[in-house]
């Protein structure tokens, strides 16, 4: 039986913390779907298609093992996507107790809705302070975000 998992998120934009979790999770599953999900609670910086493209380039540049699929999802429940692709696990990166508090109710609801389990992975502590919202803020004010994001993202934001 194939072990298939989904790493969902806004990825607006993908950070080095996301990439660390994605690459490590890809080593734990036969197939890993990195899913860009529209989060209506957040004001977006990048269009979904651009986030997908930057994820694909960043994953390739990181020497991806080739079992990663990047996709997007904007209609319906996240667990519907997971069920459609045969995934029984969601993977979430956890930086702090704040993330645990935010993710725990969603993990329980997703298990109740469709029997999909959530596993929490700790990013490398070097990235524990990095968030997409911080990157959006620093970049928007003209600061250098290259320590926090893959090179493709830093280049893209510099050109934007
Ligand atoms: O990177 P983010 O913004 O923290 O990601 C949050 C996201 C998109 C993973 C979360 O909002 C989500 O799971 N949305 C899917 C909507 C859904 O299925 N909701 C019902 C069960 S929680």
Walk me through what this model shows.
- By secondary structure, the chain is of the alpha/beta class.
- The protein contains six helices and five strands.
- The chain has a five-stranded parallel beta sheet with strand order 3-2-1-4-5, with helices on both faces.
- Helix 2 (48-61) crosses helix 6 (151-159).
- The radius of gyration is 15 Å and the shape is globular.
- The protein starts with a strand and ends with a helix.
- The model has no long low-confidence stretch (mean pLDDT 97).
- Bound molecules: 4'-phosphopantetheine.
Secondary-structure blueprint:
Layout: E1 4-9, H1 16-26, E2 31-37, H2 48-61, E3 68-73, H3 78-84, E4 89-93, H4 97-114, E5 117-121, H5 132-140, H6 151-159
Parallel strand pairs: 1-2, 1-4, 2-3, 4-5
4'-phosphopantetheine is lined by residues 8-10, 37, 39, 42, 77-78, 106, 109-110.
Features:
160 residues; 18% strand; binds 4'-phosphopantetheine; alpha/beta
- In terms of DSSP E residues, the strand content is 15-25%
Could you tell me which ligands this complex binds, including any ions or cofactors?
4'-phosphopantetheine
Query: What is the overall silhouette?
Result: globular
Query: Widest sheet: strand order?
Result: 3-2-1-4-5
Taken in chain order, the helices and strands follow as: EHEHEHEHEHH
Q: Characterize the quaternary organization of these chains.
A: single chain
Count of runs of 4 or more consecutive helical residues: 6
Mean pLDDT: 97
Radius of gyration: 15 Å
Give the uncertain stretches in residue-range form.
none
> Structural class of the secondary elements?
alpha/beta
Report, as a whole number of angstroms, the end-to-end distance: 44 Å
Please report the total strand number as a whole number.
5
Instruction: Kindly state the percentage of residues in helix.
Output: 40-55%
